[in-house]
């Protein structure tokens, strides 16, 4: 597949891509045909589930969003004419995140405590209900047999009270069980192709939607497994091999530094501007730290993000020092050590390039790992 954009019609984009997405789709299709790949490679547009809605709160009320209805019909027809699928991203986690009154069990696959009855059909999970809302929308507009694939679905493990390893394992294992069993939905008994999101955490991803955005991976940044999954036929996840780390040392708040030092808040803020501190949020994995540990976590994330370069633990007004004793202790909050990327030069102010010019804040963490999933890949 060739994906044209990603969720271009999100309401938060305020119609920025309404006039360009369909022409881009047509141009890519024309290029594929010109290259002789029109039959082998299919073009599609990954769309967020907010492109359809239901006024009745039931799947049978499904139709495309009124402000993009005609555009969606044009896109679906074009995809259908070119034997290409419609791609939709479905996130039950976001239903739970957006509504504090959303029934928790309905977000998963093994809880029948909050069923939704839609005529002869009873829905016990929001994944099926969401998917079938799209199928109803397609049927109402003359595309009953339109192929659909799930471009993204998953559950984050940190950055929100509902983003945790227990819930992520519960959801993704339930999803895998459906795939293994070949289970579809009430409206479509044959299961769609499903792409799990995501393989790895993304520490530099935008957190505008929420702190959880950097924690969708089933593997951590270094290829270690967050939680085990049964892939069927006795296959399980396997961690990355041969990963090299920097020295076992951490940057922490200095023992002699005072909690009341007026430079402490700005130092923490500085560290978290250039490193990922989303795990420090309320009821996140590191949300229960005291003041000193909170500062140490921020300092260390900055230190590791800067690849333990010289001076990286000296940015904080004499409030920090390095240690070879793991500050994680027995806590579920882990103080990380960065992968060895071979970058050991002296640290500069991350706001300034070597030429002295200002640059945008960037988290300088890059990773490319060879991951083996149960010996399949």
Automatic annotation (TrEMBL):
PANTHER family: GLUCAN ENDO-1,3-BETA-GLUCOSIDASE BG1-RELATED-RELATED
Record-level Gene Ontology MF annotations: hydrolase activity, acting on glycosyl bonds
Pfam families, alphabetized: Glyco_hydro_17, X8
Protein name in the entry: X8 domain-containing protein
The family this protein is said to belong to: Belongs to the glycosyl hydrolase 17 family.
Keywords: Disulfide bond, Glycosidase, Hydrolase, Signal
InterPro entries tied to this protein: GH, Glyco_hydro_17, Glyco_hydro_17_plant, X8
Domain X8: 249-335
């Amino acid at each position: 597949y060739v994906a044209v954009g990603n969720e271009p019609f999100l309401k938060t984009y305020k119609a920025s891509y309404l006039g360009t997405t369909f022409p881009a789709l047509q141009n890519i299709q024309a290029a594929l045909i010109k290259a002789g790949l029109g039959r082998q490679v299919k073009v599609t547009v990954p769309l967020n589930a907010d492109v359809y809605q239901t006024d009745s709160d039931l799947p049978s009320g499904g139709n495309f969003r009124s402000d993009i209805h005609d555009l969606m019909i044009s896109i679906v027809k074009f995809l259908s004419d070119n034997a290409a699928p419609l791609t939709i991203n479905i996130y039950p986690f976001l239903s739970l995140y957006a509504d504090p009154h959303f029934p928790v069990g309905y977000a998963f696959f093994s809880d029948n405590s909050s069923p939704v009855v839609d005529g002869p059909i009873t829905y016990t999970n929001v994944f099926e209900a969401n998917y079938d809302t799209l199928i109803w929308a397609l049927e109402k507009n003359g595309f009953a047999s339109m192929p659909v694939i799930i471009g993204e679905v998953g559950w984050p493990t940190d950055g929100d009270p509902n983003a945790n390893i227990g819930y992520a394992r519960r959801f993704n294992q339930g999803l895998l069980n459906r795939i293994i069993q070949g289970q579809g939905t009430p409206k479509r008994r044959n299961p769609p192709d499903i792409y799990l999101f995501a393989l790895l955490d993304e520490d530099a991803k935008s957190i505008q939607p929420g702190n959880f955005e950097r924690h969708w991976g089933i593997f951590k940044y270094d290829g270690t497994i967050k939680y085990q999954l049964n892939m069927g036929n006795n296959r399980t996840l396997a961690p990355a091999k041969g990963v090299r780390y920097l020295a076992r040392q951490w940057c922490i708040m200095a023992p002699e530094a005072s909690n009341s030092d007026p430079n402490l808040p700005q130092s923490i803020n500085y560290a978290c501007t250039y490193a990922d501190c989303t795990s420090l949020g309320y009821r996140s994995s590191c949300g229960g730290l005291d003041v000193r540990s909170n500062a140490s976590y921020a300092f260390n994330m900055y230190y590791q993000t800067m690849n333990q370069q010289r001076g990286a633990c000296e940015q904080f007004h004499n409030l920090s020092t390095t240690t070879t004793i793991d500050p994680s202790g027995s806590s579920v909050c882990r103080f990380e050590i960065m992968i060895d990327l071979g970058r050991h030069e002296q640290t500069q102010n991350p706001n300034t390039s070597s030429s002295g010019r200002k640059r945008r804040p960037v988290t300088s963490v890059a990773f490319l790992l060879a991951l083996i999933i149960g010996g399949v890949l």
